Amino acid sequence: MFEVMMYDGGVYRSEELYELIEDVGGVVLQKNRSSQMLTVIMSVPEEDREAIEKVCNDIGGVVKSVPLAGTEIAVVGPTLGRHHMPHPICDIAEELRRYGAVTVVMGMARGRGKATSQISMTERLTLDEYDGVIFMMGNFKSCVETKAELMRDIHAPTVLVSGPVPEGIEGTCDAIVTGVGRKAARMRTPPERAKLEEIADTMEAVLKEKKRSLEEDPLFVHPAEVKTVLEEYEPINMCLRPSPMVLHLDGIRIKIPYRDHREYLENVEIYGRKLGEIADISPSKIDDSSILIRIKTRSQVEDEDRRRASA
C-alpha cells in the first residue's frame, strides 16, 4: 500500500528527499516552491514512511498526512463581490490546501439575489471538471434553500456550507455543513478552526465514494504515472503558471494551450500505448489555456481494443 504525505520545509538539501523517494519506488505528486520554502506532496510505500520522515527531519522540514492530495477542488460563492466573498471562503480554501488539495475560488456570473440567481450550463460543465465542489451560501435560511437549486445537475461531488440548517433541498448536494456564514473576519478561534476541519473532513468523506468506484474499475494508468512522463515536455517546464500540472483522481490538468499541444499529447507513449488511446484529451471549459486529460478505466480500454479488433 502507498501512503500520501506532504513535506513542508526549506529548499536546502531537498535533493536528498527526491533521491530517497525515487529509491523506495515512490512518486512526487506535486511540488511548490516559494522563495526558499518548499512543499512536496509524495506517494511512497507505507513501510518506507519512517525513512522518509527521518530524511525530512534531518533537512529541517516536517511531514504530515494529506488525505486530499491528488485532488483539485473548487470553492464557490454566489458572486465575487464583497457581499458574497467574505473571509470564510478563503479560509475554507486554505484549510483544503492543508489537507493536500489544490483549490480554486470562483464566483458565479449571476449569483446575486434570491429570486434572480442563476447558473449557466457552461458554469456547470466547468465545475464538473473538478474532483469536488464546495458551495458557500450565507446566513439567510430562505435564501440558502432557494439558491440550493444552483447545485442541482452538477456531477462532481458537492458539499454545501451555510450558516442555518436548510430544509427541503434533498438531492441537490452530497453533504451539508452548517454553522459557517458570512463574516468580516478570519476564522481564528478554536471553534471556528474545528468547523474548518469539519468541512475538510466532510469533503474527504464525500470523495471516498468516488475513490471507491475507481477501485472497482481501476484506471488504465495512475495519473501520477502520466505526470511523470510529461514532466520532460519543455512547454510544461517553461510554464510560469502555479502548478503547471495538477493531479485529479481520474486524470490530470495541464496548464498549456490545447490547440498547440493536442497532437503531441495524443501521441505520447505510456507503457507502449499512445496517451490518446487510453485517455480523453480535451480543452478546459474555462478557456483554451488548460488541457484536461481523463484517463480511461481498464474495462473501457479493453472494450475499445475488442471493437477495433473485430472491425
Shape from CA axes? globular
Helix content: 25-40%
Neighbour order of strands in the largest sheet: 6-5-7-8-9
Assembly classification: single chain
Report on the biggest sheet: 5 strands, parallel
Radius of gyration (CA) equals 21 Å
Assign the CATH topology of the largest domain: Rossmann fold
CATH C-level class of the largest domain is Alpha Beta
Number of domain modules = 3
Q: What is the H/E string?
A: EHEEHEEHEHEHEEHHHEEHEEHEEH
Structural class: alpha/beta
Task: Summarize model confidence as the mean pLDDT.
Answer: 89
Assigned CATH architecture of the largest domain? 3-Layer(aba) Sandwich
CATH superfamily of the largest domain: Cobalamin-binding domain
> Which segments are poorly predicted (pLDDT under 50) over 5 or more consecutive residues?
none
Count of individual helical segments: 11
Strand content: 25-35%
Distance between the termini: 40 Å
How many DSSP E strands?
A: 15
Q: Could you explain how this protein is built, in words?
A:
- The chain contains 11 helices and 15 strands.
- Helices cover about 35% and strands about 25% of the residues.
- A 5-stranded parallel sheet has the order 6-5-7-8-9, covered by helices on one side. Strands 2-3-1-4 form a 4-stranded antiparallel sheet. It has a 4-stranded antiparallel sheet with strand order 10-11-15-14.
- Helix 1 packs antiparallel against helix 2 and helix 3 (about 85-100) packs across helix 6 (about 190-215).
